[in-house]
Design a protein that fits this description.
This protein has two domains: about 60 residues, Rubrerythrin, domain 2, CATH 2.20.28; about 325 residues, Citrate Synthase, domain 1. The longest helix is centred in the middle third of the chain and has 22 residues. It starts with a strand and ends in a 28-residue tail after the last helix. It is mainly α. The structure holds acetyl coenzyme *A.
Length: about 425
């Protein structure tokens, strides 16, 4: 809280509201007492301008293109860490020591298996079930298979049995959901492989066709997961917090986060990017046609993968993902026409005043799909990959929300009612 206050004048009356300052200097008007003082509420559809909590996890400056987890720049973390190191950072606030990291790796191995009875669930999903629906269902059922969370002394204390278990098992569930989707036998986790190598092996190893884990694939996957690991408040993370504010345990909250992420406006956007690039390819690379459609105010069409609600400059994650994309395709010698199309589209957009004047740059989803494709990950698994990456962020927010008395208050937005008022009731026989 600063000494500063804001004055709101409505109907000639002045209401004084406190101003809160963040550690990086942004200011927020604290309106919590506004209704009590004045009877007014605020209207902010889509939460374009509403802070729903105070958080110490992730800092984002959309104008300058800054993203930091617990104070560390995303580029430093992506260059120097493996994913589970960053997961540890998000959950505890500190990077692990070598000993702590070893212990955490051991936990990832120890909890990697899922209860055999859960395997039967996989058998009863219809063929071609969406891996996202399988993931959300299976994460929800962890609550019943691993109820020990309720007995944990400090369930909100960073690395707990439950958080380690969840991080490890979601990876297994994600890979199993793919195997189920394509009708192949499940591949169990191997204790000798790292977090990401294990995931790739569970995805691609087949009877009589052993999978060789390429080091570049492991490097790329670690970086992609790190770059997706948290993004402060957004549809899925705020969903996790909101559901959790009702007192619900971690597993159902994460299941809710998975469902929120599923949408094409959120985690499903990189799938839409691949479809768009494919359409442009099939249409003889007629870039002008699609750019013109995107610019036409009477056409709802947009170039997917461009623009972001908060970044009004190049998304710092997109910059790094573009570099990884080139490295993966070069090393694995993958010749993907969609990369060429993406690069040409980006170039043309960067030369077009419509996009430049609106600060529309590639976002995190623009190049990530091309990397996943090069790694052999099919399009219907892209959002699952996003969920795997975002998991530590969701858990960290759930823990933070529960540890803070103020933000753990049950979420209960208000509304401005615009419906009919007080209609006389008409009995069934008279309608
Ligand atoms: N293509 C063409 N025009 C666009 C695009 C785009 N991708 N994005 C925004 N615009 C235009 C809008 O038409 C609008 O133009 P106007 O001022 O002439 O009306 C202007 O830019 C501002 O657009 P808004 O929708 O107000 O911007 P907002 O910040 O609300 O939207 C959003 C951000 C939803 C991401 C938008 O840029 C978009 O739809 N992008 C394509 C979808 C996409 O890539 N989504 C993934 C986001 S990343 C993530 O969620 C992980």
């Amino acid at each position: 809280m600063t000494q500063e206050t804001a004055q709101l004048i409505v109907d000639g009356k002045t209401y004084t509201l406190p101003v809160v300052e963040s550690t990086t200097g942004e200011r927020a008007i604290d309106i919590r007492s506004l209704r009590q003082q004045s009877g007014y509420i605020t209207l902010d559809s889509g939460y374009m301008n509403t802070g729903s909590c105070q958080s110490t996890i992730t800092y984002l400056d959309g104008d300058q293109g800054i993203l930091r987890y617990r104070g560390y720049d995303i580029a430093d973390l992506a260059a120097n860490c493996v994913f589970i190191e960053v997961a540890y950072l998000l959950l505890t606030g500190e990077l692990p020591t070598a000993k702590e990291l070893d212990r955490f790796k051991y936990d990832m191995t120890r909890y990697a298996l899922i209860h055999e009875d859960m395997i039967h669930f996989f058998d009863h999903f219809p063929p071609n079930s969406s891996p996202m629906s399988i993931l959300s269902t299976m994460v929800g059922t962890l609550h019943d298979f691993y109820p020990e969370m309720d007995q944990e002394e400090d369930p909100y204390g960073g690395i707990t049995t439950t958080t380690a278990r969840l991080l490890s098992k979601v990876r297994t569930i994600a890979a199993f959901s793919y195997k189920k989707n394509i009708g192949h036998p499940l591949v169990y986790p191997r204790p000798d492989l790292s977090y990401c190598a294990n995931f790739l092996n569970m995805m691609f190893d087949r009877p009589n066709m052993p999978y060789r884990v390429e080091p570049i694939a492991v490097i790329a996957l670690n970086k992609l997961l790190i770059l997706h690991a948290d993004h402060e408040q957004n549809c899925s993370t705020s969903t996790v917090r909101l559901v959790g504010s009702a007192g619900v345990g971690l597993y159902p909250c994460i299941s809710a986060g998975v469902n929120a992420l599923w949408g094409p406006s959120h985690g499903g956007a990189n799938v839409a990017v691949m479809r768009m690039l494919e359409t442009i390819r099939r249409d003889g690379r007629d870039y002008d046609k699609y750019i013109a459609k995107a610019k036409d105010p009477n056409d709802p069409y947009r170039l997917t993968g461009f623009g972001h609600r908060v970044y009004k400059t190049y998304d710092p994650r997109a910059k790094l993902i573009k570099e990884i994309c080139t490295a993966v395709l070069d090393t694995l010698q993958v010749d993907d026409p969609l990369l060429e199309i993406a690069q040409e589209l980006e170039y043309r957009v960067s030369q077009d005043d419509y996009f430049v004047s609106r600060n529309l740059y590639p976002n995190v989803d623009f190049y990530s799909g091309i990397i996943y494709r090069a790694l052999g990950i099919p399009t219907n698994m892209f959002t699952v990959m996003f969920a795997l990456g975002r998991l530590p962020g969701w858990i960290a927010h759930w823990q933070e929300m529960n540890s803070d008395k103020d933000s753990s208050r049950i979420g209960r937005p208000r509304q401005v009612y615009r419906g009919l008022v007080n209609r006389p009731f008409v009995r069934l026989e008279d309608r």
